[in-house]
Amino acid sequence: MIGGAGFLGINLAEAMINAGHSVYLLDKSFANFESRRLSIPVNGKYEVDIGDTAAIIRLVDELEIDCVANLASSLLPSSDYTAFDLELRNMMLPAFQLLSHLASRKMKYLYFSSGGAIYGDAVEGPCQEKIQPLPISHYGYSKMLFEQYIEFVSRTAGLEYIIVRPSNPYGPHQNPNRKQGLIAVAFDKIVNRQLIEIWGDGSVIRDFVWVGDLAAAVTALVDRNSWNATYNVGSGVGSSVKQIIHLIEDLVGVRADVEYKSARQVDATKIVLDISKLQSLINYQPLDLGEGLRKYFRAVYATKS
Ligand SMILES: NC(=O)c1ccc[n+]([C@@H]2O[C@H](COP(=O)([O-])OP(=O)(O)OC[C@H]3O[C@@H](n4cnc5c(N)ncnc54)[C@H](O)[C@@H]3O)[C@@H](O)[C@H]2O)c1
To answer: Average pLDDT in the 116-145 region?
Structure first.
C-alpha cells in the first residue's frame, strides 16, 4: 500500500490483514504512525517516496507483490494550481510510469480516487459511477486524470484495477489537525472547546461513511475479484455540515463555537453517492450516522478524559 501510513491506509491494512492478506506499507513518512505507537501486524514497512519508481519496482519484485494499492496524495479540495502542479510532477507522473511496469508483471492495482470531488456540482440526485465527472477543484481534477490513465493502461496493456471513490470517511486514525475530515475536526474542536471555522452557511450536504465499512467493502471487492470497474463507497445518505455539528454537540454535551465564513468555489453544494452498484456485488449495509458518531466518540475519546 503506497501512502499506507495515512488514515485510510491504516484502516485498510487492518481489514486486509483480518481477511488473511499479507500487507506491506510504503510511505514517505511513518512519523505519525510511529509517534502513535500503532501496532498493526503488517509484513513490512518501507520509507519510500512514490516518486522513486525504481525503488518501488524493486520492492514489488523482491516481495512478490500481486496487488499494489495507491493511497498517496498531498492534495485537498482547497489545493491550488501550484499544489496540483507539484502533485502532477512528483507523484502522478511517476505513478503513471509505475502502471506500465505493473501491467507487464500482470499485477493488480487498487486506486483511491474521490467520491466527492470528482463529481463536481452538476449532479442533482445521488451520484452514479457512470455519470461524466465534472470536478470543480484541482483535487477532483487530479482524481479524474488518474482514473482515466488507469483505464487507458487497462485498455492498452491489460492492467487489472479497482477504482474506489470514497465519499467522506470518518473513524479511528483520522488526523483532526488536517483540513479534511469534518467529523474528526469538529469532535476535536468541540471536545477542546475551540473555534470551528466552516466555509459557507453549513447547508452543504455530504455523504459520511464509517471508515470500517469503507475498508471492509474494499477488501470484499478485492476478495471477490471485482476488477476493472469503479465503485462508489459511501453511506448513500446525505447530512448537512450543520446537522453533523449538532449531533456532535449532543454527544459531547458541549455547545460548539462556530464561525461561518464565505463559501468556497471548490465546494459542491450536495454530494450523496449512489451505492447500488456496490450493494449489488457485496453484502454492504453501512453504519447509520448516529451509531457511527457514537462509535467514533467511544473509540477516540473514551480513554482520554
Ligand atoms: N480522507 C478522506 O476524506 C478521503 C476521501 C476521499 C478520497 N480520499 C483519498 O484517499 C487517499 C488516502 O487518503 P487518506 O485520508 O488516507 O490521506 P492521508 O493524508 O491520511 O494519507 C496519505 C498518505 O500518503 C503519504 N504520501 C504523501 N505523499 C507521498 C509521497 N510522495 N510518497 C509516498 N507517500 C506519500 C502520506 O505520508 C500519508 O501517509 C488519498 O488519495 C485521498 O485523496 C480521502
So the answer is: 93
- For 223-252, the pLDDT digits (tens) are 999 999 999 999 999 999 999 999 999 999
Dist CA 213 CA 199 (whole Å): 28
Torsion 143-144-150-154 (CA) sign: positive
* Residue type, position 203, single letter: S
Domains of the chain: 7-169+209-233 (3.40.50.720), 172-206+237-298 (3.90.25.10)
Cell 469503479 belongs to 230
CB-based burial, 265-294: b 16+ in 10 Å, e otherwise: ebbbebbbbbbebbeeebebebbebeebbe
Cell of 296: 467514533
Residue 305 pLDDT > 80, yes or no? no
> Among 1, 11, 27, 213, which is best to mutate for testing ligand 1, by the most ligand atoms less than 8 A from CB?
27
Lowest-confidence range among 83-87, 227-231, 268-272, 301-305? 301-305
Distance 250 CA to ligand 1 centre (A): 30
